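Box 4.2: Ligand-aware structure prediction
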Amino acid sequence: MLDSLGNLRRTHYCGDLRAAHADADVVLMGWVHRRRDLGNLIFIDLRDRAGIAQVVFNKEQHAAAHAKAEELRAEYVVAVEGRVVHRQKANPEIATGEVEVVAMRLHILNTAKTPPFVIEDEVLASEETRLRYRYLDLRRPKPRANIALRHRVIFEMRKALDALGFYEIETPMLTRSTPEGARDYLVPSRIHHGQFYALPQSPQIFKQILMIAGMDRYFQIVRCFRDEDFRADRQAEFTQLDLEMSFPRQDDIFGVIEQVMARACAVIGVEVKLPFPRMTHAQALARYGGDKPDLRFGMELQDVSGFFTQAARETLHIEGSVQALAVPGVATFSRKQLDELAERAKSFGARGLYAVKVAAEGISSPLEKTLGAETLKKLVASAGAKPGELVVAVAAKEQVKGSDAAALVAGQLRLHLAEQLKLIPKDRWEFVWLTGFPLFEWSETENRLVSAQHPFTGIVEEDVEKLEDPSDDVRATIRSKGYDLVLNGVELGSGSIRIHRQDVQARVFRALGLTDEQARQRFGFFLDALAYGTPPHGGIALGLDRVVALLAGEKSIREVIAFSKTTAAQDLMADTPSPVDADQLDELGIALKPPERR
Ligand code: ASP
């Protein structure tokens, strides 16, 4: 027989009990984490959101409660009335370890089936099982702490933005397509057969319209939907901290985000240095070999192309730039280790890897034959290598239009080596703003220039005239007013000062290959709105799941989302997506194609 909650009222969370509560009469409610039966004494670890408390049932003192405790099994839900006492032997492993609760009465509120895995941080269950039983998974300490952290971070962000005069405004979920580079999730209309809503990839157009509407400062913690092919650590639906402000300089937007991120980091006790450093996209590529530089460690790239004469290039069969890295502590790498490294470099797109060992006695490298001892010495000096270091130089196998392919390879090699050699300090929080992005980038698949970010990104004034230039090469040099925020080598988000003139926006659509008619059909309402007194404006969106994952020390954003989906966009617990009734399809005016025609 189960007991009812009746008039019982919880007095404390299990996890909150401390020595100061000794002698207090308490009522605890929670789940049976573990039961140990020693005959006359039964111990249970009682768990709730705040943690675990030890409860002891003593046959001699409280026979009825003790008898009932014999029925308890893992994950039963109980209420315990008892008294807090000091433990004879404290358990320093848990926060409540100095005390225990002597149970006087036990109420069994519910039973539970045996869970498919134990509720502990070291679970052996597969991720699939954990996702299927997410309600059990969330009872584990780490996921529970992650959800609590997420709440705290969002709450602090809201407070920071409220203090800065931002309004939190909701934008529609049933809307039309916004181009952020992915496919839309479509929702069929029942009332308007043959017509569809799109779930927002971002509130981009609406937030810009809010600026036209005079709201001045907007933010939203908003769900966004992008239907992408399998991509590691992407979610079909994810959350952004989205914001927009009117009449801003770039510095104003950076300042707002710096405040917000400082408050978010303070939640885990991390004090960040403000303002965040800045770097152009070109500098990031040249120094770190990518547009998401991890500044927690050095090992910057050095362009050593100048040491390779035409003759040397022919001998080595290399083209394009040659990039070098000085790697600390590994001048002792064996032949085998160097071969492995070369293989790795090739997998990143290197033509080959040239290693130079720098020792106190001198330098040695197979490159010496081609470059000569003097040039090699100069190369080592220019790479800034000290004795004990290994200089590795790479050239790319294939050149990339509009980018330095060797730098991209060296950038990957830099990260690989830093991970392998454990050179990345875990307790550093290195933010950096990236600016100076091109407006367009070359798309190999479409064989034309596409927006590097989205088509609403502002343009550096002097470059606006290049929009109509017939040459792709010239249009590829148009500079945007976009920026990215990167933390520890992870892109947190991007934003820009926007285009606020209707004529310029229309010219960008044309430059992207849209006819005026197509632009009107897709963005007509927005082009119309732009004509009614649009203030200069700009904003940014940060991936909130990513921010929380970094703060929680989790590799995957799935660990900080209460109900996440698999990379195949399935919810294993709710079994989504799922077929629907024929009636439902009928109402929508939809007939499914037979499988062979899909
Ligand atoms: N809408 C952009 C995005 O979702 C961010 C922005 O430009 O504010 O990436």
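In the box above, the bound molecule is aspartic acid. The mean pLDDT is 95.
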